[in-house]
Fold these 2 entries.
Entry 1:
Amino acid sequence: MKKLLVLMAIAVIFASCGMPIKKHAQESTGTRLFATTDSVFSEYISKFEQEGKKYYGNDFKVGDIPVNFGDTGNPDFDGVCIMYSNGTREVLIKKEWWDNRGVTSKEMMIFHELGHCRLDKDHDDETVPVEHGTVKVSLMNSVLPSATTYIQYKAGYLAELFQSTKEVLKNLVASK
Ligand SMILES: [Zn+2]
């Protein structure tokens, strides 16, 4: 019983993201729910573009990928990137998750979903061992790192996200 409670607590604490499992069904019949982005997300999208420009140059933009609150299609997913068969894409974020999170977690969530939708990245669940546990090496982990870990190794997470290099983060972890 105690173990079950612990597991339930973990499920509540960690944000997870998933690509829809029945992606093909959605691709064949779905159309995008939104044409524009909810302004709630604008500052996070701007941050993503600012970071992206450091790696891809000043022309880097998120482009036509609306971000909005919506049903992620799975109770375990707090955010999703949906890719439709007509070539359009959009990000949906669960509102009750968003409303209960701080700025750092919100940034991680938007960066993760745009990692899928804008950078075409898949999940990467690699970790490196540290003294008392492990550190996730990618913001594209299917469960987001903690806000504290993200802040501590942010330069490494951004290098991994935009350049697919894990060396910056691994060096930071090793130097702690
Ligand atoms: Zn994801």
Note: The beta strands are 67-69, 79-83, 89-93, 127-130, 133-136.
Entry 2:
Amino acid sequence: MDATTGSTVRVTGLVRRFRAGTEPITAVDEVSLEIAAGSVVALTGPSGSGKSTLLHLVGAIEQADSGTVTVDDVEVTALRRAALARYRQRIGFVFQRYHLLPALTVLDNVIAPVLPRRGRVDPVGRARELLDAVGLAGRERSLPTQLSGGQQQRVAIARALMGEPRLLLADEPTGNLDSTTGGQILDLLLDLRDRHGMTILLATHERAIAARCDRLVRLGDGRIVEDVDLTDGEDPADTYDRVSRLRL
Ligand SMILES: Nc1ncnc2c1ncn2[C@@H]1O[C@H](COP(=O)(O)OP(=O)(O)OP(=O)(O)O)[C@@H](O)[C@H]1O
Ligand SMILES: [Mg+2]
């Protein structure tokens, strides 16, 4: 398989407003974006620029006020109930604040998303493999509260990958990790993309992470203020230098 087996994402004129106190805030303001199947896109921008909100809209966790999100041939913003639930099951989502189920062990947290589905080949085996891949072999029986923030984040990543998603939305997946562990998580994601095909949209504040993506989209006040292709054949050191000169 190749990288083109990931999902294609098309966002058109997307708007999401919030009412915080008396002042309305446009968290996502007329964003249009096309993401090629199999690409890895870094979503950057200062705190409050709309990264999480955009990910939530693409993942159908929040509803848009206007505009559309289309993933492959499905207009996600038009889905209702059962179809929406099916869509959410098909994608992988890593939340900024993990959202692990506190009463379940690490292993059960990873297996949880596929439990409603019948006929899967050995979910326990796959969950163990993923936990091993994120460096948590041996912690299967721990509870989330017994893990550090970075370890909980890695459980959340394993959980998001459990259903073999064609689209992974990850909100600062390496934000609570030291740079070595963060780099290893990105290695894992890029390797999965290369071997199985996956489109990845990830919010990040880190240059070292953004520099390894195919494209950098920077938000400012809910709008796209920069969109840079990082795949034009430069060596990784050049790309890192280039990203160093960009504002994140
Ligand atoms: N549920 C909500 N209610 C009210 N305002 C919200 C809500 N969620 C987000 N906002 C506002 O929308 C704007 C964008 O927030 P968002 O969380 O998307 O930013 P972000 O880029 O992810 O920031 P960070 O880097 O801090 O995670 C901010 O002004 C935020 O205060
Ligand atoms: Mg955020």
Note: The mean pLDDT is 90.
